[in-house]
Amino acid sequence: MCLTCCAVLLMQTLGDNLNTETKLRPAPLSIEHGISADLIAVLVAVTCGEPLVLTIQDQRALPSGPFELAHRSLQAGLRAWVERQTRLPLGYIEQLYTFADRDRAGVAGQHVISISYLGLTREQPASGEHEASWRSWYAYFPWEDHRVGPPLLVENVIAPQLKAWAQQDKARQQDRWQRAAMTFGFEGRAWNEELVLQRYELLYEAKLIPEALRGNLPEVLRPGPATATEPGLGGAMILDHRRILATGIARLRAKIKYHPVVFELMPETFTLLQLQRCVEALAGRLVHKQNFRRLIEQQELVEETGETSQDTGGRPAKLFRFRREVLAERAIVGTKLPISRA
Amino acid sequence: MCLTCCAVLLMQTLGDNLNTETKLRPAPLSIEHGISADLIAVLVAVTCGEPLVLTIQDQRALPSGPFELAHRSLQAGLRAWVERQTRLPLGYIEQLYTFADRDRAGVAGQHVISISYLGLTREQPASGEHEASWRSWYAYFPWEDHRVGPPLLVENVIAPQLKAWAQQDKARQQDRWQRAAMTFGFEGRAWNEELVLQRYELLYEAKLIPEALRGNLPEVLRPGPATATEPGLGGAMILDHRRILATGIARLRAKIKYHPVVFELMPETFTLLQLQRCVEALAGRLVHKQNFRRLIEQQELVEETGETSQDTGGRPAKLFRFRREVLAERAIVGTKLPISRA
DNA sequence: TCTAATAATACTCAAGGGGAGTATAAGGTG
DNA sequence: CACCTTATACTCCCCTTGAGTATTATTAGA
């Protein structure tokens, strides 16, 4: 079969090239096909105003598993697999990105295609079996939390280090610093919470992220120390899992603005402040309370349950529930083109 | 070389298989591993106010090829492959979606993962070798072109057929018709040009699309008649290529609203009307001329070249060029959250 | 019991973006 | 020259949106 031949030949080519450095050289015959597919999930929940992500392996990896042919579709495969592993009912699933960089090749030329998904779930039940645990995503991206103002980390650590990095290359200095200023909001620019991935990639490129210092291939075999780099720029993860997480956060931050996905993260009934805190947790920014309520109400996204919540610490708040009908009623998309209505 | 061998063998396999109507049921044993990966490209150009997509196989398929392990990344692989095949310089590339539905399984359990990409290219040089040719995407989605008003097809054909389909199932009647009304803008609702995929999937579900009538598995082997269904609901394509095209169109229609990708489709210099016509071709809707210009200018997306174009049919128009700097200057993303600036 | 703190909720106001239209300029063609 | 076509400038007005003030309903504590 074509694929086999292709793979085998490639194996050899790859094998030849790769092992010039390290010399773990597996028998090239042992692997027949060069391609395997993995599913990687960014599972998000928000509890007590913290955005949580499900992790395994001592909080250094995203849950992932082999793509099984048994399922009708990728989506179904992921859903079944997640629910089996974690017992979490998955409200919302969305494909994120498919990675197949050569650098990701794992054990000896075995080429891995990773299809990543974003999944939203309610609250946070017992996190299933295995060593799965929930962790705030700001543990991996401390510079992304601007809810109490811009973190000192940005100004005190990231800015100077990026400046130094920019100056390392006189030719590209301008360009580098402009990118840094744009993504991190230096030089008086506004912070843009959606640029999560761009910021991570910039830090990676500047080698401020421990993942960037690892060798490419043999890396799979040494996940590195668990907390060695924690104090600085957030917890590291294996492989490119942190990049995938960044992709998921960025996607979610963009999505909440034009699609009512927040409600997938909320309990059945909630107060408006709880909803606001959830949005703020995701966006990493504070929101204008009155205007937020106006936005929610004029879009008719919620309806009163008639009950109130007493445990607010102040005046009791009305409880609301999501009006699921809106999903069918209208497609929420924004126009930016001056479309002629005539 | 691997690539050659792979390609040649695939050619043969495909060639052999394509014209045998059914019987092709290979021995399930022949394949050891179930997974192979394909790249599928939605290549778009706009010429003379028409949005074009590159097709092969008598305009019934999108260009695709095996994923080659030799490249550094998927993106690089696609770029190299496209440029080799078509000699088109690809300005912009974006991953669309990864499909791996069981229904797509081609030859007997061989599981195919298809990673689809959207690519934008300038104008339209000679379309390379092979049987590649450009075709207006509205040939596949005639109901999507609202530039001269809502097509009669929508009101005269689609609406009644969807109504009939809704009424087939008394239980789901309400729901079905609401979906139809929402996506196609029936019952006085506004047309939303971004819902390309939703509309296609609705028509597919209602079996108004010939692709939906094909059997699942042996389908690969019989692409069906070339123009049998043309007069009705647009040209058919093999497998799920039309769905992928719909995904690409939808993504592009959404993207032009918040990211200056249109310019990847324009020649080096252009008049504002040419730019407008290009946007209109993509969006499938007319745009308010004066407000469109205001939008472009206030965003400082273009700068005058100093020259003018005479062949407008009227007063000569200033020529403009895209200000590439804006890409670095600012990240264009829109906020819909009432973020507190204090 | 009275007071301060916390939060919910209602309302106001001004600036700006965006939809829509009018007016004028500058080329062609008969 | 009249008349068509397109380019370009400018106006108007409403509604969204950012920002702030005022009022109400609770709890905690002096």
How would you describe what is shown here?
- The structure is a homodimer of 342-residue chains.
- Chain A has nine helices and nine strands.
- With 342 residues, the first copy, chain A, is an alpha+beta fold.
- In chain A, α3 (152-168) runs antiparallel to α4, α4 runs antiparallel to α5 and α5 packs antiparallel against α6 (241-255).
- Chain A starts with a helix and ends in a 13-residue tail after the last helix.
- Mean pLDDT of chain A is 80; it is low at 1-32 and 217-230.
- Chain B binds a DNA duplex (30 and 30 nucleotides) through residues 271-273, 288-291, 293-295, 298, 310, 312-318, 338-342.
- What integer is the average pLDDT of chain A? 80
N-to-C SSE string of chain A, H for helix and E for strand: HEEEHEEEHHHHEHHEEH
Helix content of chain A: 25-40%
Question: How many runs of DSSP E, i.e. beta strands of chain A?
Answer: 9
Distance between the termini of chain A: 58 Å
The 3D shape of chain A can be described as globular
Count the helices of chain A. How many?
9
- Compute the gyration radius of chain A: what is it? 23 Å
Q: Point out poorly predicted stretches of chain A.
A: 1-32, 217-230
Approximate strand percentage of chain A: 15-25%
Q: What is the largest interface, and how many residues per chain?
A: A-B, 69 and 73 residues
Task: Characterize the largest beta sheet of chain A: strand count, sense, and whether it forms a barrel.
Answer: 6 strands, mixed
Q: What structural category arises from helix and sheet content of chain A?
A: alpha+beta
Oligomer: homodimer
